[in-house]
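Re: weekly structure request thread

Next one in the queue (287 aa):
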Amino acid sequence: MTKLAVLDLGSMGSALARCLLEAGYDVHVWNRTPGKSEALANAGAKVCTSADEAVGASNFAIVCIKSHKETVALVEELSTSLGGKTICDMSTGETSDADALVSILGERGAEYMLGMINAYPSGVGKEDTTILTVGNAGTWERYGDIIRVLGGKSANVGERPSALAALFAGLFTVRQGFMFGMIFGALVCQKAGISLQVFSDQLPATLKLVNDYHNLFARTVPAEDYDNAEASMKVYAMAQEDALKTFESLDAPAEFMQLMYKRTKAAWDEGFGDKQLTALVQHMADQ
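Done, posted below.
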């Protein structure tokens, strides 16, 4: 069986290590603060006193620190041979930092896998959890089963490090967009004297529409088919204008709605008025 290592035992790193131990894997662990290793030692992990020891004892080492830049620094400090090993970095960072990590691993004879965990630590090991990875050709075939233990819906999306950084940015934007929508929505309701409990209670109905938006996006954007709109760009722009006027009349922060209206109205003015709202992808990409 593949020998594994997990380096850095914060909340996420500890969850990854514990999940692998429960699945029966041989797991070496290391943390800068030794005390965090004790609970995992009781669960069967082999505690290492250095990152060198942990990486040296493994074929597949998962690093779960704050950023690719910190992983680069960690790799630079390693004295053990990395030849034939695969380093899986589960941290985040800019594309340039990911490229730097891949470069130094290649120089040291190691293969790379970069992973993006779409879950809180409590979601590790669940069937509906997704970890998206990129890596050298063949790494997913060798170690994909391990990643799927950590997240049942995990998948590989290619080899280019920049692909994962872009995917993180895109999916993070979707999640944050919804959160900021709730925040700005709460503010305009608060200005109008509406109870925030009332506002919160109405969000589940809005969530159904979010699912409908996803279905529309999935149907139109990959196929680049933006015709036959049930609700056109023009209709959305007029609704956004009405909402924007409400924000402004109540002196509520309106920059989020202003951005949406600005983009939609510009597309309408340039001939996209009868298209699907999702045609903004095409309109903005062409600018």
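The two ends are 52 Å apart (CA to CA). DSSP finds twelve helices and eight strands in the chain.
Next request, please.
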